[in-house]
Amino acid sequence: MTEKVIVHDLKKNFHHLEVLKGIDLTVHEGEVVCIIGPSGGGKSTFLRCINRLEEPTGGEITVDGYTITDPKVNINKVRQNIGMVFQSFNLFAHLTVKKNIMLAPVDLKLMSKEEAEQKALELLRRVGLEEKADAYPHQLSGGQQQRVAIARALAMNPDVMLFDEPTSALDPEMVGEVLNVMKELAEGGMTMIVVTHEMGFARDAADRVILMADGVIAEEGTPEQIFEHPQVKRTQDFLSAVL
Amino acid sequence: MSSLFTIFQASLPYLMDGFQITIQIWAISIVLGVALGLVTCLLKLSPFRPLRAVAWVYIWIIRGTPMLVQAMVVYFGVPQVTGLRLTPFTAGVITLSLNAGAYLSEIFRSGIQAVPKGQSEAARSLGLGAGRTMVKIVLPQAFKIAIPPMVNQFIITLKDTSILTVIALPEIMNEAQQYVMIRWEYFQTYVLVGLYFLAATSLLMVLANYVEKKISYDRKGNRS
User: Fold this and answer.
1) Per-residue DSSP letter, A59
2) Which of A80, A90, A135 sits opposite B127 (nearest CB)?
3) Residue numbers in A near B217 (CB within 8 A)
């Protein structure tokens, strides 16, 4: 299997606060990795370093063969292949659903307007929101907005998808619809790194679960290993608190 | 005492001429001021300290001194030093647009900074560069946020044109001052000048309301 994401000794400081204290992680093509752990443990910061929304303080990250921590790399080009879904959806508020999805492929001249529109409608059908193509983001529920955000990321045909707590801002009854879309994506062979508090999703959909706490990977393994037989006390404490 | 309407008719040739100049100099200065404000605002948000410093000094001086003084310096002062003679109209345009630009730049900056950070992060995560993100995502939303204070500034600039009477610009205030010399009807004449301004600013407010409604994207129908 090809290595899609290689993280080596990643460190990130915010001023004097050490948020990431040396993370090593390799994600293979088609693999679904779920990152769980307590708040403030560095999960989101780690994810945001992978497409350099946060500038790493030290270490090396390679995505798709591009060393993104190299200052000479064309980060905009690399980001085109890394989809990201945010906790707060971040749909472009001034654009309709369809235009949200079309914007990047058209602006970056990867598709013509017609191609992008077709792609947008196809993706909307896939996430079950075809009839919302001309709605504005504020007219949608949280769950619908997040499904559109996933479609928007997919329009770029990314190789890797990053999910930053995609269901944490949702009303409970809308969590399922978003997780279903993510599950389909995982079954379709997408390489995914998912920061989540949804233990059920991590158990069902992940190939590997990582527990991150205090800026380090406390434990990693298959969902079964982590959820049934956690070895590290930090993992045991966390799981007994959330399950 | 003659009625307001009689004076309106009698003063029409004077005041209408002046009013046209008022509107002209205002329109030109607003266009230049918006451009200047946008550039200044981008300078102020730039990561390069010297560029930020330029913007800071410009805003500091213009906001910190009366426009009356600025007009005097531009019209009487600058020619004396440089030998370059300016017409009242040119000097007026320079003064007004410098003034509007300084205030508008701060209005634009607050608009840009009011756009949630997640909006540009989403654009950057899709591979758009900083410039394209600004143009396609941030500015359109910032513009909408900035409309009410922008209109406010447009109105202030319109009224500020009357200050330019001191550099002998034949705008409406200047014309009115000449007219009262002949007719001595101070009350009616100056009330009329006020009404001309009121008419123009009212029109501006109606127009602004229309534009604001037209481009609002978060009030088009309810959540479905």
Assistant:
1) E
2) A80
3) 93-95, 136, 138
Digit-coded pLDDT (tens) for B56-93: 999 999 999 999 999 999 999 999 999 888 999 999 99
- At A9, which helix (H) or strand (E)? strand A3-14
Structure tokens at B13: 């040739």
Q: What is the ipTM of this complex?
A: 0.93
For chain A positions 158-217, those within 8 Å of chain B (CB to CB) are none
Answer yes or no: are the C-beta atoms of A232 and A240 closer than 8 Å. Answer: no
Q: What's the pTM?
A: 0.84
pLDDT tens, A185-213? 999 999 999 999 999 999 999 999 999 99
Distances (CA, A) of A155 to A99, A101, B180: 11, 6, 69
Structure confidence at residue B169 (pLDDT):
86
> Residue B199 is encoded by which pair of tokens?
């008419």
Q: Domain residues for B169?
A: 4-223
| C-alpha span between A18 and A21 (Å, rounded) | 6
pLDDT digits (tens, 9 = 90+) for B164-185: 998 988 889 888 888 888 888 8
Contacts of A82 in chain B (CB under 8 A): 125
Here the tokens at position B116 are: 């949630």
Structural domains counted in chain B = 1
CATH of the domain at B128: 1.10.3720.10
